[in-house]
Amino acid sequence: MEKNFIGDIQEQYINPNEFGGLVYDENELLAIEDVIKNKKIFRYADESETSVDLFEKQVGELFRVKYVNGFNSGTSALRAALFSIGVCENDRVLVSSYTFIASAASVSSLHAIPIPMEFNIKYGMDIEQVREEIEKGCKAIVIVHLQGRAFDIREIVKLAHEKGVYVIEDACQAFRATCDDIYAGTTGDIGVFSFQQNKLLTSGEGGIFITDHREFYEIGRNFSDQGASRNAYPTWDETNAVIGDNSRMSNIQGSILLAQLQKLNYIIERQKHVHNIIVDKLKELNISRYTEACSTNIGINILFLAKDKESADRAITCCEEHNVLLKRIWNKPWYKYAVYQRQLPIYRNTNLKQAQEISDCLLALPIPPILKDEQTEQLLNVIEKLVELDYLRGWF
Q: Rounded CA gap, 53 and 186, in Å?
């Protein structure tokens, strides 16, 4: 079923790396208009229920969790989550090495030390390295789910909890992804999601964390509100007040996300429809699937492993020639960025082989929810070309 969305979508590629933002329509416009007419953009402008309150409530019901905190970005949500579990100066925090730099920078912003962990295609992190690092002592683990896919993190969570180590799931790229019917973000102590422009649902920026722990929820809520304890008005004299941030979600963000949430099933269904067509083509072409990889995904892309870095570069160029976007997700592990190489010898002396290989060779083919039949056919033709040129060794 075709829908009418706002504006003409003019993109360089037929498959831009955007999702929820491509299906904006009059519902998002009306939602913003209601907030403007009400003249209450700040979520605490009065004591009435706000769009942020409603969004938090609906997300809680969706994930069957007790508590949801809204933030102005996924990074803010991650930083608040770390603060909530007590991460502070010089604490060691194990962090997935193959991820956006915000996963590590959120740790660094609290003057703690992010420890890069080797990549594993099934568990997200190398379990034996996790075991070794826990024995050395650490406060928490930040494990990052990958591009609409949920890793099987149950063993890592078990190991962590046996030693009193908290687990934060950075599920910013994996809203509604599942592993064995368990939603990403619900296995650890806190799950974090982002609503930045390139996410499944988007308000341009925005984030949440979800948890079943009331203490973490309350600390996180206060932290985002300048550290205040709030009952209608903020106060910093109560025992639960902290030194915090200004990272609250606004009612404009909340209203957009409420409208986006109504389209969630539509977006996923559209993406999965094209995803399944591509999977059938890959089977026809006898391209290997990495069955040990994450269990399920929400159809936002196909991930290919190129044969080597040079093949990956050539595959990207080939796709560009056909107006198809094929991209590396991250071109290096976060600890190899200059800002970390300058900091501590641990980063200069670390060389995680799998994380580097996946940075060089893992390629994402986005599947936005607006693809038409002829564009899907164009994607299939380009994939067939990549196979003919022998650039690919598998997909997941």
A: 20
Q: Identify the structural domains of the chain with CATH numbers, from first to last.
A: 21-261 (3.40.640.10), 267-395 (3.90.1150.10)
Residue 155 amino acid letter: E
pLDDT tens-digit series, residues 14-52: 999 999 999 999 999 999 999 999 999 999 998 899 999
Dump pLDDT digits (tens) for 97-136.
999 999 999 999 999 999 999 999 999 999 999 999 999 9
Tell me the C-alpha distance between 255 and 274, whole Å: 29
Residue 182, classed as helix, strand or coil, is: strand
**pTM confidence score:** 0.95
What are 29's two structure tokens?
Answer: 């416009």
Q: What does DSSP assign to residue 20?
A: G
Q: How far is CA 236 from the centre of its chain?
A: 33
Q: How far apart are CA 300 and CA 369, in angstroms?
A: 8
Tell me which amino acid residue 236 is: W
Q: Alpha carbon 369 to chain centroid distance?
A: 18
The answer to whether the CB of 300 falls within 8 A of the CB of 200 is: yes
Number of residues that this document lists for the chain: 396
